[in-house]
Specification:
The protein is an alpha/beta fold and 149 residues long. Helices cover 28% and strands 9% of the residues. The protein has three helices and three strands; from the N terminus they run E-H-E-H-E-H. Strand 1, helix 1 and strand 2 form a beta-alpha-beta unit.
């Protein structure tokens, strides 16, 4: 974990036994949606699992691995201060559909009534659209003429 107050740029390795050090920074970024398994580790390694949060991200939601990771949140000890960033409204909607299907199955099979899930903020990927616009020369982006015409 890199610390802002270190001028030498050193880092510290975190283990399950030392993960309480995350209190200092408040959270841990995980580069995918699979925060459920890590939430179990946090629960067993920390006396107070509310001392820091996980932040994951949805790069894709259509793979079997991503969908498995998402439905795992229903039974994992994720908390409402944990989050998984959705890269678009469409991705968030898909996550909600996948979660709802799992919740419905758990409600029908086990009668669950309480549900704790991470928050799902939408933070779009940064794309400079003009870099991908084949018609920019014909619009206000460019000179007003389409190349080759």
């Amino acid at each position: 974990m890199l610390s802002d107050n270190r001028s030498d740029g050193t880092s510290e390795a975190l283990t399950a036994a030392s993960s309480g050090g995350l209190r200092q920074v408040g959270g841990l970024y995980y580069p995918g949606p699979a925060i459920g398994r890590s939430a179990f580790h946090r629960l067993s390694a920390c006396n107070n699992h509310h001392e820091w949060a996980f932040c994951g991200i949805t790069h894709t939601t259509s793979s079997a691995g991503a969908m498995d990771a998402i439905v795992e949140w229903v039974t994992a000890p994720v908390q409402p201060w944990d989050s998984v960033i959705c890269t678009s409204q469409a991705v968030k909607k898909n996550v909600e559909v996948v979660l709802q299907a799992q919740v419905d199955a758990m409600r029908d099979r086990l009668g669950i009534t309480k549900l704790v899930l991470p928050i799902l903020p939408v933070i779009p990927l940064g794309v400079h659209s003009e870099d991908f616009c084949i018609f920019c020369r014909a619009t206000s982006c460019g000179s007003g003429s389409v190349e080759g015409q």
